[in-house]
Amino acid sequence: MTSEFIQLLTPEGERVPDETYDPWIADVTDEHLRGLYRDLLLTRRVDVEATALQRQGELGLWASCLGQEAAQVGSGRALLADDFAFPTYREHGVAITRGVDPMSLLGLFRGVSNGGWDPHEHNFALYTIVIGNQCLHAVGYAMGVQMEASRSGGERSSAVIAYFGDGASSQGDVNEAFVFAGSFNAPVVFFCQNNQWAISEPIERQSRIPLYRRASGFGFPGVRVDGNDVLAVLAVTRAHLAAAREGQGPSLIEAFTYRMGAHTTSDDPTRYRLASDLEVWKLKDPLERLRSYLWRRQLVDQSFFEALDAEAEALAVRLREGCRSMPEPPPEAMFTHVYAGPHPLVTEERAAYAAYLEGFLPEGAV
Ligand SMILES: Cc1ncc(C[n+]2csc(CCOP(=O)(O)OP(=O)(O)O)c2C)c(N)n1
User: Fold this and answer.
1) Engineered SS bond to 71: which of 192, 210, 224, 227, CB 3.0-4.6 Å?
2) Catalytic status, residue 263
3) Listed residue (91, 110, 241) closest to 168, CA to CA
4) Predicted TM-score (pTM) of this structure
5) Ligand 1 in contact with 166 (CB < 6 A)?
């Protein structure tokens, strides 16, 4: 596979032909394109609403994906139902493509849930806050898929995708995952969203070479795609997932993008990032790009956008109301799901905590 920067839509929304990757989106219909725009728009609306909810004290924290919508929606829509995705804590767009109700994303950030959805229902693992950890989980899962396929003598039917950031590429877990995936030819696609910052650490201080080129050191292909171009991300991810399903082993996709918002709502990027960089990246906005393309090809009219805006607004209202009315779990709930079954240490800690809570006077008592 090629190793250049793959782009199928320019920032102005002009289609660029590509011999290798065009066939991977040959089946994309006009309806499909409008669907991709809907995914992008709803992802952004969820993100903007969640950021506002954090500011109003309804969420403890929010990790915004502003600017990364195309990388997430393009790769998420490349997955088949049987494929399994392992996200970080920022994959809200992928979650939406996997059919996870955006409301479920809020519970974790409100602190009322340790997860929020059933991973097996959506083939979408729970969010991982520990950087890079999920890459090991993904490779383990992919090796399991591989073993099951060889045991049943059947074709390998599914692939795995592991999401991580540029900062995570410095992490031991990610490098160990690369080694195992390479050694065992695991059917996994490593999908790095290089948003160029690991909180305040720029990519220049993390890698002497472009990240996609690291793959060759581990013995598998790497490719860099324009992460703000949903069509290119869709095509490239489809190609690499297909290769994984066919037994060609792992690969690394580096989606080159930019996080337009703060790392999380606890961060202030104006202290370390140049405002002029942000202005440059606003011109590459993934939503505007597809919007221009749709207009150019006359695939939409004003009523399409109006209907979509109304849908997004209704979703935001549902999120706002739903978030505020999420039931608070009882304090001892945090001990319930630590292990699948009883564990003596957890039982002891739970009892100690219950005794501690009993030491408080009832509310209103003096
Ligand atoms: C093992 C571990 N070390 C440190 C942290 C603290 N931490 C949270 S986010 C982050 C930076 C991650 O950067 P990147 O992988 O580029 O992802 P991004 O948030 O930019 O998408 C760090 C160091 C953590 N969560 N886990």
Assistant:
1) 227
2) yes
3) 91
4) 0.95
5) yes
